[in-house]
Amino acid sequence: MGDIDATYRLNMLIREQDGVLTRAQVLECGLDSGFVRQKLRRREWVVAVRGVYVTHTGPLSWRQRAWVAVLDASPSVLSHESALQAVQGGGSLPIHILVDVHRSVTKRKGVVVHYRADAAAVSMYNMHPPRIRLEEAIIDLAASAKSEAAVIARLSDAVQARLTTADRLLAALEARPRIARSAFLRDVLIDVRDGSLSVLEHGYLTRVERPHGLPKPTRQAETRSGRRGLRDVLYEEFGLIVELDGRTFHDTATGHDADLERDLDAAVWERRETLRVGYGQAFDRACTTAQKVGLVLNRLGWLDVPHPCRSKNCSIRQL
Q1: Where on the tree of life does the source sit, at the highest rank (predicted)?
Q2: What are the Cα distances from residue 318, in Å, to 68, 206, 209, 287, 291?
Q3: Among candidates 142, 252, 255, which has minimal Cα distance to 199?
Q4: Residue 98 contacts residue 143 (beta carbons within 8 Å)
Q5: What radius of gyration, in Å, describes the C-alpha atoms of the chain?
Q6: pTM of the model
């Protein structure tokens, strides 16, 4: 009866850990070293790294590589990109893991080790495979991004994909005041919480709208006619829609046709004019874009005018 129970526990472990296990775990199941030697001799199992086995002889999947990494450095969890991939799928290398700052971990090819004093507090050891909390992984990735645009993309993409919320990310950030770019991360997350859900939308907000004093619009407003969807920017009082047109995200004939249909529906059924703004208008020509949007708003009843931004070359100052 004991052997049956031990085999059952072992098989459950193999299923839970994608066919990866350690020598210590085999012994904890009630089996002995002779059992391990027999599995290895028969080539039913192979050694991945010392003390960690894979229960087949073929190529390892990404999840199996992840399990090998965390079990080899146990207690450890997936972090950074690897933690995100454990949730979303995917399989890029190297594998990133997190361990306590006071530990010394053997360096392994294809594995990047990160250290934190609060590793245990932010780790979820009950996950399969174990990983850092998702908000922590996203904050780490954003903080280490190569550009401000990449920071915005990391944060806004995570919220738009409904992996988490801006408020949860803000709470995680609040607990890490010394992390790189903390002030910028906080500003971006506040904007994301308020409806700026892409690099282009954030560019319009921070380069066109806010520095030039355009009126505050509603973001992500639901359409009232035609296809269901969300308007990127809606100046409700003036009947003006601004769609942030990032061709990267919907550059197909079907997607373009749907965009045009939404614009037509807004004009016919809602009596709203639609302007489409792309990366060039938001980033390269932000000042002239603000001027043009302001002129349209004036025509529709806005009584103020766009203000010059801090740039010495702002075209509005030259009017």
Answers
A1: Bacteria
A2: 63, 21, 18, 11, 11
A3: 142
A4: no
A5: 27
A6: 0.82
Cis check for the bond before 94: say yes or no (omega within 30 of 0). Answer: yes
Give dist(CA 148, CA 129) in Å, integer.
Answer: 31
Tell me, what's the pLDDT at 248? Answer: 47
Per run of 10 residues, the mean pLDDT along the chain (length 319 residues) is: 79 96 94 94 96 95 97 97 93 95 94 96 96 97 94 94 96 93 95 92 96 95 79 94 72 66 79 92 95 96 95 80
Instruction: Supply 204's token pair.
Output: 């319009």
* Both structure tokens of 180: 């790189």
**Token duo for residue 210:** 């806010």
Rounded CA gap, 170 and 176, in Å? Answer: 10
Rounded distance, CA 69 to CA 112, Å? 9
**Roughly how many angstroms between the first and final C-alpha of the chain, as a whole number?**
90
Q: Residue 111: which of 77, 143, 142 has the closest Cα? A: 77
Residue type, 2: G
- Where are the domains positioned within the chain? 2-54, 66-132, 142-193, 199-318
Say what the pLDDT of residue 127 is.
95
Residue 151 CB contacts under 8 Å (≥ 6 apart), including other chains: 142, 143, 145, 181, 184, 185, 188
